[in-house]
Amino acid sequence: MSKLSQACQAAVLAAGILAMGAAGAQEATVNDPHLWLEEVEGAKALDWVRARNAEAEAELAATPEFRQLEADIRAILDSDAKIPGVQKIGQYYYNFWKDARHERGLWRRTTLEEYRKDAPAWETVLDLDALNAAEGENWVWHGANCLEPEYRRCLVALSRGGADADVTREFDLVDKDWVEGGFFREEAKGGMSWIDQDTVYVFTDFGDGSMTESGYPRVVRQLARGQAMDEAVTIYEGQADDMYISAYRDLTPGHVRDFVSRTLAFYNDELYLRQADGSLEKIDAPNSANKSGYREWLTLELREPYTAGGTTYPAGSLIATKFDEFMDGGRGFTVLFEPTERSSLAGYSWTRNHLVLNVLEDVKNVVTVLTPGEGEWASRPFGSTEGIGTIAVGAVDRDTSDAVWVTETGYLTPTTLSIADVSTDAPAQPLKSNPAFFDGSTHVVEQHFATSEDGTKVPYFLVRPQDMQADGSTPTLLYGYGGFEISLTPGYNAAAGKAWMEKGGAYAVANIRGGGEYGPRWHQAALKANRHKAYEDFAAVAKDLVATGVTVPEKLGIQGGSNGGLLMGNMLTQYPELFGAIVVQVPLLDMQRYHKLLAGASWMAEYGNPDKPEEWEFIRTFSPYHLYDPAKDYPPTLFTTSTRDDRVHPGHARKMMAAMLEGGEDVRYYENIEGGHGGAANNQQAAHMSALAYTFLWQQLND
Q: Which of 344, 418, 452, 562 does the annotation list as catalytic?
């Protein structure tokens, strides 16, 4: 069939789907010719995947240039010179490390004295590569939860191939071995947390009816050592349409409390205090607020206006009160932060005696140290972004000291790590710094603002060659996300530096609505029926890059993953004329069925419910799988995903690829058999997928 005939047929089908509206949603799903590609590990589907992979490899990975780039990125990922980030557990500082000799990684530890050295002496606690060899598995590290104050026993989470689903096993830090007959949780989405050495909370798949429609735990139980899982006592059971149920004990000395968390949707949760008799008392704060108890304090990070004690606190504020007083009915709060039109709360971190506040002002950090007191808390400056960069501050051990880790990074500035004591005015002590993995001396970093369709000013960062001529000749890569209140702040991207900037390309990052750069209002401005504003923002940035002479559409490539993959899908289908090449990574694309696939139901607060006729009316306007029209011209496109992604179903990318392939488009596809939602399970896979994306983009934008 010719492309023209296919286009006519598809146009008729598309018109029929639009005419049906939501009433015909189920029929349209039944008529989906690519539904078989949703069989994640079906033989036919995997044969199709392998054939597409082979085609992409043949086109992109067969040259010496590709192999050199892949090796360069792998060398960056494997480099022994990278900062080994550490977590204080008891008297030791623990790090999880991957390199060329340890593909799956080492869990290792050292002392602070050793860590200060250029070449610390590390003690291996757990070797995942050795464990995989011994057990014939492909475990990927998912972290450890160690029981204080002894810090001997840990609940270690391991994932097969990098999926969100994992197992929990009990580990002994003194013996450096698994505890025989210890706590164990079968593979599922969920977790386990300590109550005491012989008791844990478990939230996992207990069998039929125990998981939410989003595929996460609906039931939390209390399990004693030696008990079978079906003997565990149910603590709380949520509803099927909830998102996630969990429980944990805050073991802060002198302030031990048990909590049950009921997450209904993103930024919509209930938090309960569990009493000694097992009864639950709800913390009567807004569901939309981030509720956090530490020591004697309760903090609320507000996403909507909140009226308490006769005062209304605006959305985006951080307020605090005494925990016990609040539970007794008191509603007197101290305002710790209140947003402006240009500022938002980036985060905060408790130390033993202080709270460190991190604020974004036009996507630049300002850090302040607050000291609790009666009424207004004392405040003093701690640091701010020098030029364009990012500062992150986190407690070393909030229960015992006022020490904090200070991480600073930028697009051209290798990441540095320092340690500081926020109870003093002493300067931070530098500990580690990453090497320069690429030559950034040829580029400069700038911040610009584009004007979106409704007049909103949208910030974006541009990393460009110093000698760039404003004649549109620079190949430019634009990245975006725009969802779930996630902010994109400057960071050292060594792979992009080596693969893109060092070759003379420009790199841009768009801070579009849907993200958190200006707090909850920036996120909420692009929810559900307003989703189009995120896409209009990104298109405005693309147009600004052209209008200012940085590039031209033929030399402008874009890239994004997950929700950013949905963004890419909408750029592809709604604004194809703006771009010369598109990389769509682990994407959502079929928005008619997204809520029926894996964790999709948990995102309906962000996108809407396609089963509701009035919501499908607007959802279909940003469903790339349904917006695709073979009669239109589209830029060259690369789809990448992972078979083991159990968060965003690989069927999204598979089906879109199949549709566009049948439409005769210039598309290619690569699916990693492992990797989870991150796409890769080890450094080799990460380097390979990264090299595929950059090779494709560079080839297309430099023809």
A: 562
